[in-house]
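Lay summary

Proteins are chains of building blocks that fold into shapes. Our project writes down both the chain and a compact code for its shape. Here are two examples, one after the other.
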Amino acid sequence: MRRLLNLVPPGTLAVGAGLALLGLASYVHLAVAGHSLTGADYSSLSVLWSIVFTLGIGVFLPVEQEIARVVATRRSQGLPPGPVLTRGTALAAGALALMVVVLLAGHDLLADRLFAGDAAMVWVLIGSLAAMAVAYTTRGVLSGLQLFGWYGGQLGVDGGLRIAMVALLGLTGVTSPLWYGLVLVIAPLVGVLLTLPPVLRAVGGGVPVAWGALLRGLGLLTVSSLLSQVVVNIGVINVRLLDPSDVATAGALLSALVLVRIPLFVFASLQASLLPGLATSASTGDLGGFHNLLRRALGIVTALGVLGAVGAVALGPWLVGALFDASDVLGHGDFAWLAGATLAYLWAMVLGQGLLALDRHRAQAVAWTIGVAALLAVTLAPMSIALRVELAYAVGSVVVAATMALLLRRGTPPHPTPTRPLDEAVATGASGGIR
């Protein structure tokens, strides 16, 4: 056992345990809500969920990664992390403020179009995004300082509290989507509060960090992160936008997506060691090792995706009803499209790590942009709503993966060497948002 533990990167077990509990919390959260809410209210919660994780992960995960990168670099030089926290907090606050302005400007339209006129859900959306901004900023410091026990602890507290809160809501017969949405506000903030001591110790001290240290790769990283979340989450939102009255499909689709994306949890653990390994091979000019590691990773996620697809196609229609009390509107064919799309998405995630290891952030952003354009084109095609959003997810993911493969094939130099030092090319941190 000790030898096995030595094979995984430091902190993998602590962060993995926190992610596992947070993942379980997502299933419990949606399952209890599905059995407690009406179809219309569960649809509103589904849209809220999709927007929160699309914007939250898409915008604030890159901030966490850049904070962690700069803090780790300064730590190796014996410099304090306080100035990085100050700049990172300002970045997260600025991004949050911009989103809040947009959401408030479209408050009435969002409430009517997405939440069946429930204006309070827009405020829950704002509160959830604020909670994610705080959580990801503090996690960046914890990750950069290699305080993975505290990092995993924050994830675990968040997940454990979600489970406890939704269980209480279900047992007491609460039937308002507002309260199930507020769980996404309260749980992350409590997790931050209980893991705040090491973050507070990092406050202050040292010369201010130049904005360029954080902003240099943040723009392209944010574009890629945000567009990747659009590909995987936009289907639920599009159902509601295309036909606000079709509340059954929106709720059922979120439940189905939660099931078919189980392999993505495993990839989150693989990612912790994949990017450093690829970056090391690239930095030493080991092109053979780089491609071998990339092929092995693609083989692993393909096996995971196929295994998950078999289970999802065979049992998916029954599971969404049994676990989430979702409407019986999706069949085996629907799950086949969603599972196939998830497999292609996994390929894109692995190939994207290869581009990042080569410091080709722009190429990764271009691939996601092309994929989202393909997704939007399919979404506007004259087909049934369920089929078009499923096909859009599949086509978008395939296009992203194919574009990345082409860019890697044509753009990998004989002796790849990052233009930045290895410790800057490797982005640390884990996604706390559950897909």
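And here is the second example, written the same way.
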Amino acid sequence: MKLYYSPGACSLSPHIVLREGGFDFQLERVDLKTRQTEHGRDYRTVHPLGCVPALELDDGQVLTEGPAIVQYLADRVPDTQLAPAPGTLARYRLMEWLNFISTELHKGFGGLFNPAFPEQAKTIFRTLLQARLDEAQRRLGNQTYVLGDTFTVADAYLFTVLGWGKYVGVDLAAWPGLAAYCGRVAARPAVQAALAAEGLR
């Protein structure tokens, strides 16, 4: 398998999952401005929208969209418990979290990265994002990870998205529960390895 990624982007989530799951995989960096891969390939031939992540499977098929990729990977290695078993309520709780992160947090941060957005619009985005971070902290509560004591693919995604705060002026110190959570996730060996491979530490 090959993961197309850009350092610190949402592709960090499946990168962490690949390492947590013990997969044999390759990485290929994508320049999101030029849409070229590190080996000179036009990335749009892999993903027409030019977005990361994309996971090229061993048979040549390409899977896109981070939440789909991480569930696919988790189901390949069920003994790791990176996702609850399909059909269980816990699995739907995982999907609930993945959708919340994707639609409420990921998109909320996304607008703050857009240089074309006027500052007035970014102020609105920050206000909306604050309410969603309040909700994320409330949902997490005192749990170690989003579903309890077991690290899942939702944790890889939440950690990735929360890490964007430092680039757009959203200080997690205002959400001590989320800040402590990020510290716990960051301490995991697979997460450390992924961060190092992407030049983020």
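What can we say about the second shape? The longest strand covers residues 26-31.
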